[in-house]
User: Fold this.
Amino acid sequence: MRGLRASSLLLCGVVLIQLLAVQIDAQRPKTQWKTLSGFSPRVIARGGFSGLFPDSSLDAYNFAMQTSVLDAVLWCDLQLTKDGAGICFPDLTMSNASNVESVYPKGQSTYPVNGVPTPGWFTIDLSLRALTNVSLIRGILSRSDKFDGNAYTISTVQTVNKEMKPQGFWLNVQHDAFYAQHNLSMSNFLISVTKTVIVDFISSPEVNFFRKIAGRFGREGPSFVFRFLEKEQFEPTTNRTYGSILGNLTFVKTFASGILVPKSYVLPLDDKQYLLPSTSLVQDAHKAGLEVFVSGFANDVDIAHDYSFDPVSEYLSFMDNGNFSVDGVLSDFPITASASVECFSHVARNATKQVDFLVISKNGASGDYPGCTNLAYEKAINDGADVIDCSVQMSSDGKPFCSSSIDLGNTTMVAQSPLRNRSTSVPEISSVNGIYTFTLTWPEIQTLTPAISNPYSRRFNMFRNPNERNSGKLLSLSEFLNLAKNSTTLSGVLISVENAAYLREKQGLDVVKAVLDALTETGYSNRTTTKVMIQSTNSSVLVDFKKQSQYETVYKVEETIRDILDSAIEDIKKFASAVVIGKSSVFPVVDGFVTGQTNVVERLQKSQLPVYVELFQNEFVSQPFDFFSDATVEINSYVTGPGINGTITEFPFTAARYRRNRCLASKETLSYMAPVQPGGLLEVVSPGSLPPAEAPNPVFTDADVTEPPLPPVTAKAPTPTPGTPSTTAPAPSGQTQLTLSLLLSVFAMVLASLLLM
Assistant:
């Protein structure tokens, strides 16, 4: 079977996790957990690792076991075939998670399910033999379809047990009444299968099902778990809503030892997707002697805004909140659940760092607040950033301030303000009109309302912290420096300078001098405790700073590169003491998959140049599939794989928390804390589904580094509108190869001076 062959590939270590890493059952002492048993919460893998591979495929089950805690429980949604075989398949109807429609195009039927006529391809219409022609595919469209061509077969309960030999096995019976209507007995199947298969848990949302199987398994039989559906839905046996049954847990205790509930039963949300106060359900259930398992965990779905798109934070809110702990979590991504239990639970915010790298903010905590505002910077500091950053822009009256963009339309609500008519064309900066910082005075800019960045709103409808989307105020560079100076936890600041040549030549604004003056005025020129880093994509800017100060300089490589020449590294070392590169210059990505690893980090570090990598974000759509929609997995892979020296992130909390996780102190690499194997996931994709090859990224050369000096500051012409086309051209970055433009500019200036003589 294709699935078994792919499973063998996983076990042979050709895919992304180092599968031979030693697994240690690092179970926490009983006293630390507020579960019913006192032991750590169970990790239950729904359909295996169904967030990556097709639900209930052998590869999904195999990968779940290889990347989870040792006692992870495999979940099987039990369905019955026409001839009474028990299979693991996620739903009663098959068209959503298999290719049954193309195999049996005339096989659609309509049956009443809980009283509702439901069309589809049902398992009860096909024998087990007929199902051998059907393959499993993804059931959620946002997930990769690259594994759909792997011809994963549908497995029986016995096959899953035989091939996986799980430490825990959970059978979920969702539609016992439906099968009974078609003369198929779930209870008889379960009695029979448990003679050869150890089943640890059986769940169902139907009370009558538990009445039928009560007393038929003996003392050593499986635990019964009553599954609650949405509160307004009716339970078919009692004809009561699940919400009303929730109020009588002593009744549930008469036939079950645990309950399985949606997340909202424990931590409800308001209509804006923010957390409401937790309910007392877990404590009430524990008092009644019931374990509480929670369903609905997946890294690639919207979660409460309170979690900042971080799935680990969500898990911890259910298991390590100081008040209660659920007894288990049902997850599509068991690696994240496992790491949450074993690595991040009961870890204090001031715990010792287990790994050393810089956490550098990107416009402050700009994933939670509008970037470069007081609130974004304050949160970055509180979240554990080592270095906060300021992208310096200049106002028309020469005030340096922090803003992520020179176009205020990208960072503020200026388009809805009285200043909206100040839009101008500046082709040297952008092909579209904008309201640029150098066209407004600092007092005018201070009146603007900041706007949070939403990089994934249009394509994915994902929005950051809507309640705070316009909160905070923009800071001048001096205010930013004073804020950082008053912090007792920061080790440094990073000041980013761009467009310096244009500002000098076209606007008469010297951003280099403005930055140096602000640093002197705020006392940084004499400070030894707070490191100052100046970053730019222009070597000319860093050379200028190097001549006038002793501050550390950081060169940013804009392009995605596959290698860097020795000569380019030697040139960089003349003016910079560290380098910033993009994530794809470390792990190249094609069509959402990591294709390999470059040697750029290694080459720079061998030349004593620390490497900081950007841009780390928590949104799962920002990460290749290789990182399992988990920002922590991504950070771990960059830090413990190529060994970068720092992360530049819009969510500093996630990176800072990662450094404290206890699993990094383990002498053995735990499977759920192992770096991905670059390009390994593509090894499991069938050849026909592989993404097309792309042209290789360029090699960075010394020609990309070299550029002419910054031009002198010229008096701003009083008449032309900023950005009006002229005979001069901006001093360019060497990285964009515009040296010729500078020569033309100098020639034009000389010619103009001769004409005036």
In short: The chain is about 25% helix and 15% strand. Residues 395 and 437 are 5 Å apart (CA to CA). The mean pLDDT is 90. The radius of gyration is 30 Å.
